[in-house]
Amino acid sequence: MAEATKNQEEMSFLDHLEELRWHLIRSVIAIVIVGCAAFVMKEFIFDTVIFGPKKMNFPTYQFFCKIATFFGITSEFCGDSLPFTIQSRKMAGQFSAHIWTSIWAGFIVSFPYVLWEVWRFISPGLHKKERKHSRGFILVASALFFLGVLFGYYVVAPLSINFLGTYQVSKEVLNEIDIDSFIATVRASVIACGIMFELPIIIYFLTKVGLVTPEILKKYRKIALVVVLILSAVITPPDVASQIVVSIPVLILYQVSIYISKLVIKRDAKREAKYAK
């Protein structure tokens, strides 16, 4: 009897693995389909999106140029062009960059669907009321991710490219940047900010499983500030202004996460009191 029960549990675990496998397969298929569409739209993906922050008519540069002009300050954001060139040093460099950029574009655009597949996998393990209260999970998580992506693309990426692309240790050294390095800078800025903006969602689930409380978040707020500054230093150029620009929205999200954690604790306490009656 014990052996039969054990086999039944083992089959149940294998069934879960099989279900997870199909969710992952469908997610990969969605990414590949969107990636193929991005592969075909080569001119738009590269000339408009990827290499957009290299052009001085990029909205971010125009914005900072107008601010500098208003205050009568000379700024590099008002230049005609950035003093560096992008090149490919490998035989298959451009083709490889085309493929991998298409895959990453597929992941970013397909992110809501990937979240939906993840939700379909974990939702059967939740209580009916938990599923009801978490109904807007995909919408909120997707909105935060795309908000982070836009912030990374329009703020972090151009600041990084402008600083690193114009930095010189000597006039004897020319900035001839490899295409992989340039794309990696844009990709890291976009993906990192997209993930960082998921902080409220992460705190929500950590609070639900009891690993985080509002008190813990408040207690370690100073440590969180240091962590945020370190993360900002990693994904931005090494200047204080850029780090502050990135830190501000993350710190706001941290405060929002404390509020969300309070709501989760209060809601769970009310539910337990109701069941206790």
Chain-wise SSE layout:
Layout: H1 2-40, H2 42-50, H3 59-70, E1 85-87, H4 93-109, H5 111-122, H6 128-133, H7 137-166, E2 176-178, H8 179-196, H9 199-208, H10 214-219, H11 221-235, H12 240-276
Parallel strand pairs: 1-2
Describe this protein with a few key phrases.
277 residues, mainly alpha, disordered N terminus
What do you see in this structure?
- This protein has 277 residues and is mainly alpha-helical.
- The chain has helices at residues 2-40, 42-50, 59-70, 93-109, 111-122, 128-133, 137-166, 179-196, 199-208, 214-219, 221-235, 240-276; strands at 85-87, 176-178.
- The chain has a two-stranded parallel ribbon.
- α9 packs parallel to α12 (240-276) and α11 crosses α12.
- The chain starts with a helix and ends with a helix.
Low-confidence stretches: 1-11
Distance between the termini: 39 Å
Average pLDDT works out at: 82
Give the SSE order as H and E letters.
Answer: HHHEHHHHEHHHHH
Rg, Å, rounded: 23 Å
In short:
By secondary structure, the chain is mostly helical.
